[in-house]
Amino acid sequence: MGRKARPPGEKEVIRQQRAEDKKKKILAAIPGSLGLKKNIAIKAGFSWVIIHEFFLDNPEFQALLDHEREQVLDRAEEQLYKMSETADLPAIKFLLSMIGKHRGYNPEDTTNSQPINISLNFSKVSKEGKK
Predict the structure, then answer these.
(1) What's the number of domains the chain is made of?
(2) Residue 55 within any structural domain of the chain
């Protein structure tokens, strides 16, 4: 027994339905993905290439991916502020270097640096470099 021939246009309807299902799965996988295509691919059940091509073919959905990435940046920025509140010096310096420029902070400005006195004592070192 052979396959039944499909009515004209039915293949196109099936193709459109599959494309719509794929779009729904991909869009549902964006929240919680950290804006990473790999995470979207895993969650939606597609390869990274399919996800990448989807965003190339549907640039109107790039804003959703960008929004997810902005949320990640917001969380990271929040953690950085918390670290600076605990007197974490590298975090404080980083914050000042990134957002303190308009107040005149310049991490490369050494005009306010105090001289450092270093005292070296070589009296215990022999000519061969041994004590």
Answers:
(1) 1
(2) yes
